[in-house]
Specification:
Helix content of chain B: 40-55%
Order of helices and strands of chain B: HHEHEHEHHEEHEHEHEHEEHHH
Largest interface: A-B, 17 and 14 residues
Structural class of chain B: alpha/beta
Number of strands of chain A: 0
Number of helices of chain A: 12
Strand content of chain A: under 5%
Number of strands of chain B: 10
Radius of gyration of chain A: 21 Å
Oligomer: heterodimer
Largest sheet of chain B: 5 strands, mixed
Structural class of chain A: mainly alpha
Shape of chain B: globular
Distance between the termini of chain B: 32 Å
Distance between the termini of chain A: 34 Å
Number of helices of chain B: 13
């Protein structure tokens, strides 16, 4: 009890929130590096997922790449990226972490996107083509809106993973909430370690809730009740994505 | 300090298990005419194993039967093993051992003072502290050869006027430790422009220093990479760092004047520069510690 009280005191002491090494700034750094990494992953994974889902080609390559991305520990990527970024003059900390988080964020977005697009009913797609829609129109006016909840679910999975993993940045001299964990470990300050871990978990949960709301928002009204009652192949993919 | 800081609980537990298994045969043997000597280490890392090998090899050369226990994970294991007679000799570090035996003791930058404080503590445990070597494995501020030249740096106090323009890198605990940022400020008046929390004298700090991400690094003074990378150790001219000279500690009950002379002959030839190069041979070139020790002893005419 005493221990938890100390952690609570640490979390609520305004002095711990102030300044460049305070919780406020660390939280902001953590959000920044997470957002940038996921945004970069979206730039790569969304178009790739859309193309693969629409063309229904290259699935094998994507599954392989996605699984490989999941299989390599982020810490190893960080360690491998570090000498490269130092060599390129991009320095310690920020960029090697972004590279590691970017690679971590790609697989769920990519997988969910192509599964979502691919999962759109083939007859509906045929009907759209029959009505004279161009391929681009089929993709952006039919497939993407129908797949949107799943695509957002993929991004949500990535965000949660990235927020939890961005603590690694502190290992390579950058900031973020990982600083409290790494520095706390270095000076054997368990209160600080647990406090930092709680903040990371809270941020991940907040991100999860935010994206859940967004997911509901992009779900077509007609599909809302149906999707809840009858999870399609898409929902399955989202679930596996989150597990990894 | 290095050894206790490096200690991770899991590793210690593992080491404890291994050491318990390894120690069992150690106690036997020491009853014949010319005793069997069990040489141990204070912790299982390259530098300590090299020096332990030196002790073992000069003893063997003088006709002693030697058993090696060079995998004792940490001081938490090796010190009780020595006091119980499971090992008879191990290479130690002055201040680190002093603080291990008495955490309230006053370590300092003066090795004679530290040795004087340490001697009675060991004596009451039946252990004799022999004369220490010049080789001092302590925290050191290190710069690249180029920085040393362009900024004209040779000792730590040279940093004081320009520190505001420099970035310092070291272990994350640096801002809290008297030997690091607080001590540099208090003793030398040095306040760096920026501090980057890295690792404990490990590859990250070396890479950051080499890549120009930091200008000054906290490394261990005998780290093998220093010589290999052309780094320059700044002289601790105001004795901020505790003296951690390498020193043999021996169980009184096996000690005789011949053993004492043999161990002293090794200590007399060990210097920080020499052990740094030997460390590089093991850490960088992956040579076996026993081979490195043999090469050194032959070169020094001790074998």
């Amino acid at each position: 009890m005493n221990y938890l009280a100390e952690v609570t005191r640490w979390l609520t002491d305004p002095q711990n929130w102030a300044g460049p090494a305070g919780i406020g700034n660390r939280l902001s750094e953590h959000v920044q590096i997470s957002l940038l990494s996921v945004a970069l992953a979206c730039v790569v994974a969304l178009p790739a997922g859309l193309a693969i889902g629409h063309l229904r080609k290259g699935r094998f390559v994507v599954v392989s790449v996605a699984n490989l991305g999941r299989a390599i520990p982020s810490f190893a990527i960080l360690a491998l990226a570090l000498p490269v970024t130092i060599g390129l003059g991009l320095g310690l900390g920020f960029w090697p972490t972004v590279i590691a988080l970017f690679l971590l964020a790609i697989p769920p977005i990519l997988t969910n996107t192509y599964v979502g697009i691919e999962g759109v009913d083939a007859d509906t797609v045929e009907a759209a083509r029959g009505m004279g829609m161009s391929e681009a129109e089929v993709l952006f006016r039919l497939e993407l809106p129908l797949a949107a909840p799943l695509v957002v679910a993929g991004v949500r999975t990535s965000v949660v993973q990235v927020v939890a993993t961005a603590t690694l940045a502190a290992l390579v001299a950058w900031g973020g909430l990982g600083r409290f964990i790494i520095d706390g470990f270095a000076i054997r300050d368990n209160v600080q370690i647990l406090g930092g871990a709680i903040l990371v978990a809270a941020l991940a949960v907040a991100a999860e809730l935010l994206f859940e709301a967004l997911e509901r928002l992009v779900t077509p009204i007609t599909a809302r009740s149906k999707q809840a009652a009858m999870p399609g192949p898409g929902a399955e993919a989202a679930a596996t994505g989150r597990q990894a | 300090m290095r050894r206790s800081r490096n200690l991770v609980l899991g590793a210690a537990l593992l080491a404890a298990t291994l050491a318990l298994a390894a120690c069992r045969p150690g106690g036997d043997g020491a009853q014949d005419g010319k005793a069997t000597i069990v040489v141990g280490v204070s912790g299982a890392f390259a530098e300590n194993q090299i020096v332990a090998e030196m002790y073992a090899q000069v003893l063997e050369n003088a006709g002693y039967e030697v058993t090696r226990q060079l995998d004792l994970g940490s001081r938490e294991i090796s010190q009780p093993a020595l006091e119980r007679g499971e090992i008879h000799i191990k290479p130690e570090y002055l201040s680190t051992l002093l603080l291990f035996l008495d955490e309230n003791a006053q370590a300092s930058g003066n090795p004679d003072e530290v040795a004087a404080a340490l001697e009675p503590l060991l004596e009451e445990r039946g252990v004799k502290l022999l004369p220490f070597s010049e080789a001092d494995d302590t925290n050191a501020l290190v710069v690249t050869g180029q920085t040393a030249q362009t900024r004209n740096l040779s000792k730590v106090s040279d940093l004081a006027p320009i520190a505001g323009q420099l970035t310092f890198g070291g272990p994350p605990e640096c801002p809290n430790r008297p030997f690091c940022i607080p001590g540099l400020k208090g003793v030398y008046g040095i306040e760096f422009g920026d501090f980057k929390p890295l690792d404990v004298g490990g590859p990250l700090t070396v890479a950051a220093l080499e890549g120009g991400e930091i200008h000054v690094a906290l490394l261990f003074s005998t780290s093998g990479v220093i010589g290999r990378k052309g780094f320059v150790v700044l002289e601790d001219d105001k004795e901020l760092q505790q003296a951690d000279n390498i020193v043999p500690v021996v169980l009184e009950s096996v000690l005789n004047s011949e053993i004492e002379d043999l161990l002293n002959s090794v200590s007399a030839r060990l210097t920080t520069e020499k052990i740094t190069e030997l460390n590089a041979k093991v850490e960088v070139d992956q040579t076996d510690p026993s081979e490195v020790a043999r090469g050194f002893l032959e070169e020094e005419g001790l074998l």
